[in-house]
């Protein structure tokens, strides 16, 4: 628990919430130029700089990038926490920087971050542009990859609140993937190495969030950056920051991402990563999509056939309003939702709830009844 205690005392408190933009991180990066090198590797569609921060002196080169999707900011916060960890020093920090050189792109898609969108200013998903390299941000990442020739890559993302682990009622607070290198999803040498590192991360995380670590789908897509880099022989790890109960700002999840980053870097710095321990990767349960943000069970609904009890699954849509992220609920599914879970659940059956006509079912009405 030492890492969690450290994080509680020393995390980068100037970054909170979901809306993290260039103006938030650039001053923080500049504060760290005394212990590392800050450079510009390219510019976004709208002309904003894409920054690279380099720290460490070791022979093992690790390239990591965050906010490839502009509305996925949890890992950016964790990366900035990581820089503070290196600043405060300590044995673990020293060992990592002695054996590794880290190349960090904390915000690959600054235009998307500002607009709080997945895509860039040309409405292109950068994680589907690895083959075409049609966007300046994609080119900046590939050019950096080719120039530094990393030994390992960390592809840092957020995932939606819908994901759980296996078939359980545990949210996938973090998920990982060793991307495939071919359609058959063969277990190639670079995959074994990334699997071994993920297994080491999972061993650490199980101490903190047991049962809340998932394994992401490994369907091959050469247009995805992780698949493309792993295909080129570089072990690549996909990190997916997910939901922790009640933590829609993901300021709790960020500390587990931070722990995962430290665990990965400690393993790389202290071992010759050969992939021998890759089998433990498959002990991590696969993700499923069984969660709603709110689940109302057995609600009476007026239909043409009379009153029917239906389960109602509600999700939140994240919307940028007045420079803040607003979580707007909407009805996602109705019917028999047995086997699904809600981050918040309510049961209408047996309560004095007046039936509502199906065509008049609205989230605002439902939430007034239960929240």
UniProtKB/TrEMBL annotation:
It comes from Sinomicrobium pectinilyticum. Belongs to the peptidase M14 family. GO terms for molecular function: metallocarboxypeptidase activity; zinc ion binding. InterPro entries: Peptidase_M14. The lineage of its organism: Bacteria, Pseudomonadati, Bacteroidota, Flavobacteriia, Flavobacteriales. This is Peptidase M14. SUPFAM superfamilies: Zn-dependent exopeptidases. GO terms for biological process: proteolysis. CDD domains: M14-like (cd06239). Residues 11-331 form the Peptidase M14 domain. It comes from the Bacteria.
């Amino acid at each position: 628990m030492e890492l969690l205690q450290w994080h509680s005392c020393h995390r980068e408190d100037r970054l909170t919430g979901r809306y993290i933009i260039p103006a938030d991180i650039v001053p923080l990066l500049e504060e760290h130029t005394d212990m590392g090198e800050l450079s510009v590797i390219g510019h976004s569609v709208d002309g904003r700089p894409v920054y690279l921060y380099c720290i460490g002196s070791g022979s093992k080169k690790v390239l990591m990038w965050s906010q490839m999707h502009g509305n996925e900011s949890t890992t950016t916060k964790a990366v900035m926490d990581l820089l503070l960890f290196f600043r405060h020093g300590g044995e673990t920090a020293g060992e990592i920087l002695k054996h590794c050189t880290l190349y960090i792109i904390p915000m690959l898609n600054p235009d998307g971050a500002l607009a709080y969108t997945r895509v860039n200013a040309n409405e292109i998903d950068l994680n589907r542009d690895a083959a075409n390299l049609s966007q300046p941000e994609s080119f900046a990442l590939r050019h950096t990859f080719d120039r530094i020739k990393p030994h390992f890559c960390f592809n840092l993302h957020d995932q939606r609140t819908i994901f759980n682990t296996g078939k359980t009622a545990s949210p996938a607070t973090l998920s990982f993937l060793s991307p495939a290198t071919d359609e058959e999803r063969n277990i190639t040498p670079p995959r074994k190495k990334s699997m071994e590192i993920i297994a080491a991360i999972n061993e650490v995380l199980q101490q903190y969030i047991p049962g809340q670590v998932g394994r992401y789908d490994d369907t091959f897509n050469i247009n995805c950056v992780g698949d493309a880099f792993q295909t080129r022989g570089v072990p690549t790890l996909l990190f997916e920051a997910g939901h922790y109960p009640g933590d829609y700002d993901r300021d709790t999840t960020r500390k587990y991402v931070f722990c995962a980053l430290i665990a990965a870097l400690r393993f790389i710095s202290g071992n010759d990563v050969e992939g021998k321990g890759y089998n433990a990767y498959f002990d991590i349960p696969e993700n499923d999509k069984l969660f709603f943000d709110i689940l109302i069970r057995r609600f009476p609904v007026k239909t043409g056939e009379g009153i029917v009890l239906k389960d109602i699954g509600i999700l939140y849509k994240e919307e940028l309003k007045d420079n803040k992220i607003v979580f707007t609920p909407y009805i996602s599914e109705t019917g028999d939702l047995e086997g699904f879970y809600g981050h918040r659940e309510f049961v209408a059956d047996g309560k004095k709830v007046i039936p509502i006509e199906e065509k008049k079912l609205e989230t605002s009405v439902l939430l007034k009844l239960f929240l």
